[in-house]
Amino acid sequence: xxxxxxxxxxxxxxxxxxxxxxxxxxxxxxxxxxxxxxxxxxxxxxxxxxxxxxxxxxxxxxxxxxxxxxxxxxxxxxxxxxxxxxxxxxxxxxxxxxxxxxxxxxxxxxxxxxxxxxxxxxxxxxxxxxxxxxxxxxxxxxxxxxxxxxxxxxxxxxxxxxxxxxxxxxx
Amino acid sequence: xxxxxxxxxxxxxxxxxxxxxxxxxxxxxxxxxxxxxxxxxxxxxxxxxxxxxxxxxxxxxxxxxxxxxxxxxxxxxxxxxxxxxxxxxxxxxxxxxxxxxxxxxxxxxxxxxxxxxxxxxxxxxxxxxxxxxxxxxxxxxxxxxxxxxxxxxxxxxxxxxxxxxxxxxxxxxxxxxxxxxxxxxxxxxxxxxxxxxxxxxxxxxxxxxxxxxxxxxxxxxxxxxxxxxxxxxxxxxxxxxxxxxxxxxxxxxxxxxxxxxxxxxxxxxxxxxxxxxxxxxxxxxxxxxxxx
Amino acid sequence: xxxxxxxxxxxxxxxxxxxxxxxxxxxxxxxxxxxxxxxxxxxxxxxxxxxxxxxxxxxxxxxxxxxxxxxxxxxxxxxxxxxxxxxxxxxxxxxxxxxxxxxxxxxxxxxxxxxxxxxxxxxxxxxxxxxxxxxxxxxxxxxxxxxxxxxxxxxxxxxxxxxxxxxxxxxxxxxxxxxxxxxxxxxxxxxxxxxxxxxxxxxxxxxxxxxxxxxxxxxxxxxxxxxxxxxxxxxxxxxxxxxxxxxxxxxxxxxxxxxxxxxxxxxxxxxxxxxxxxxxxxxxxxxxxxxxxxxxxxxxxxxxxxxxxxxxxxxxxxxxxxxxxxxxxxxxxxxxxxxxxxxxxxxxxxxxxxxxxxxxxxxxxxxxxxxxxxxxxxxxxxxxxxxxxxxxxxxxxxxxxxxxxxxxxxxxxxxxxxxxxxxxxxxxxxxxxxxxxxxxxxxxxxxxxxxxxxxxxxxxxxxxxxxxxxxxxxxxxxxxxxxxxxxxxxxxxxxxxxxxxxxxxxxxxxxxxxxxxxxxxxxxxxxxxxxxxxxxxxxxxxxxxxxxxxxxxxxxxxxxxxxxxxxxxxxxxxxxxxxxxxxxxxxxxxxxxxxxxxxxxxxxxxxxxxxxxxxxxxxxxxxxxxxxxxxxxxxxxxxxxxxxxxxxxxxxxxxxxxxxxxxxxx
Lengths: 171, 292, 666
Prior knowledge:
By secondary structure, chain A is an alpha/beta fold. Chain A has helices at residues 19-28, 50-58, 79-97, 114-131, 136-158; strands at residues 10-15, 37-42, 63-68, 104-108. Chain A has a four-stranded parallel β-sheet with strand order 2-1-3-4, sandwiched between helices. In chain A, helix 1 packs across helix 4 (114-131). Chain C is α/β, with parallel strands linked by helices and 666 residues long. In chain C, helix 12 links the parallel strand 21 (394-401) and strand 22 (434-439). The longest helix of chain C has 21 residues, at 562-582. Chain C is globular. Chains in contact: A-C, B-C. Chains A and C meet through helix 1, strand 2, helix 2 and helix 3 of A and helix 4, helix 5, helix 16 and helix 17 of C.
């Protein structure tokens, strides 16, 4: 399980008007930062469906970063307020699931804050390195195996029939 | 009011007139200064340039002792001690490694540094804690007609301008006004007096001292008021040399606390005024107290 | 989970651009192309030097035809730069332009990472995601949004004036809103302009009059913009017109009322003369004010404050009856298609650098105060007199006051070197005084400006290179008695100098206005870190903003001189005119839509839309989205519990596939 070559992988959802532009600015300014993030462009942070975050974590992301405009500056007036609301609720869910708080992060980064992109990414990568991999896909396999084993045990105790494989668990 | 008190080496030596005037004045105002037990030299400005780590440990020991002594603010009258102690606090706040080193060193003496004791200058305490209204009340002999040039020196407001403006401080000005004195407009109030250069590089250091005194006279001051023992010494002790090199600039330099003592009617002999090289002209006799 | 209805037989063309060295130096483009080429559905995979070039774009078209491509992915720079370019190329090749996806491997990869292996892996992951996503793209059409032909120009300085005249001359109706009682801005306060030493008023006032006279311009001074609603092509703006207590239609500008005012002496600081002179409560800002209408200051007028005044002004106005103390604030709503902001700048407050003695020593003045002193229509009739009387025989100019200074403002204010030299020449002309300019660098980039610098040197103006440490009145030698001494390190000579002068002029820098954050929020715009309005691209789009239909011009975008302000004003007017003359704007088809059969009528979406684009059909009990109002943020899409609201271009399946793509690659 301990892969010495493991590097944290972060899936980022950036809003087009502020954070994506800030990341572009960081590029134009040749500001260097950790290569661990993969940006998915959306028009507004309000488009971020909590299911996206869960899908990313389930499929192997060690962290998810959401970037939007500062409160009061949303290009679409209030989209980022909805994001904030959803994020607060999602945080509680994630905590209950045992997922560390540092793994899902919401940042307000305005179009002129190229350097903030760098500092947030580097900081998040540092934190994730300390936490270690989330390792969800592997964990799903482990849990499936555990359940299969359990089912086999139960069936063996009751009838000598091999049950059908339980459905694979998807996000 | 109670404060812990760090006199520093100067106030027990060359600058003893400062302590001699500070303690009775503070007592008169209801402020108790409790001297720290077993304090050590703060290292002054010199040690920091020689070995920063050792200098920090040296200064931090005093801060640790002060913390142990009680929850009071630490008052330190010497500007260099004031600056060094504050600088040390700053360093320890900013630098994790430095803080770790200092804790380790202090630990060997059973001390620990918490960083919670504010280091204050008596001028700050007088104006902001005691308050000018209280000071005014205690004045029995207003310093009427006495023209004073307030000289702050460079270390009290730079680089940390915590209780007054870095460019144009006015706490001492206001204090002098509360004592009834006439404050002279003195643009050189924060310019360097020459500090240790008066000894090591006199051509440079004494020249700065000369400029300060010359301008004070030019502005019509009768006396210069200071808050730092080295400033007082530089401005007071080299008049022969100054006269020989550039010209006579005989104007007395005293501590603000000595002027306060005079205004409060405390006996002049007990304020250390006899220790000045250039004596201050005695004030006219105190006016008769008003008949009830 | 994934809607594979469009999956069918996808034939994807993948192109990775070298962008010369920009991408290729850090990303192994050939390796990425090779990797992508092996993925299912990828029919063509190429790497090329410059995809955005003509041959690059033609390559796409060629491949679409030759290989029957029905999806295209380009990995190159930021979509914010070239998404449009490539969509057009795809369309030119015969394919719906929205069957295209772009991957940012320059701004987000090669330019920000330092390890070639990492950068290449990232490029592969991002490209993989795009290849997965593009399968789910659907054919879409842009919508045309009509543009209202009228334009709002905010700010009546030289930039706003020029923009308004350009548009008006082009036959467009312009509303010019200015918060001061007269247009003219800072330029109206200048004496002469560099490098030609043209009289500022002489070149400005004809333009001001033209604004007044132009039938296409509605001029509202003493007014503010209160609210802006709508979007490009369809803005509804609420303008608040403050009461001058004068009927603009009736006042002829004779100023008899000012003469007759109950205040025999002018008592209040005159704003136009930056406090160097006084005015009465009833005043005209300056003689050439446009409109030539008097204004009453409600804070100072006796009648307005106490109700008890002889009102000699009304008497003096006689039969014209232009004075109206009952005038109230008026709110007007207008509809415009485009907005140009030309709100200008404010000057740095020199009191923030107390070492220079401004406010302490009477003979330390700012550059603008000196302009008023040397101008013949100024408070001293053009006589350069010091505040405590007399003509200066020596003047020192201190440059970069509040500019190029990490303690106050870091930027260069661009015009101060030139206007200081101009003022220096004027001072010498007026008084023959010795002039010394203390500078860090002399910046004289415009046409004729370097020659102006030469002339200044030949005129005998002294230049000392070094940031001034302080201005003081303490004299070290008899020559310094009664003077102000400038202490500076003369870095070229390698000495610290004390230079005594009679008068000091501080070249104060330019700053954004104090209320710039409120203003930019009004127009849904951003400011840069320094507070200047943010342009879309500092090189390629200096007058556009990220908000379509809102343009910026002049110093509000950053410090600049008059020729550059006018150039930007013309540019902004041209951008607006281009939109208006075309008649429509093509809206990105990224709107939300409801799949009726899945909608359960829960109404969670209805209150979420700031544009009130979501309605509810009571008969059908389903949510309905008005595509014309939808701006495409996607907030309702994320909120919809049944997933019946979807977003074109940002469908769930598209995004889920992108997530899968970045992670399953590795």
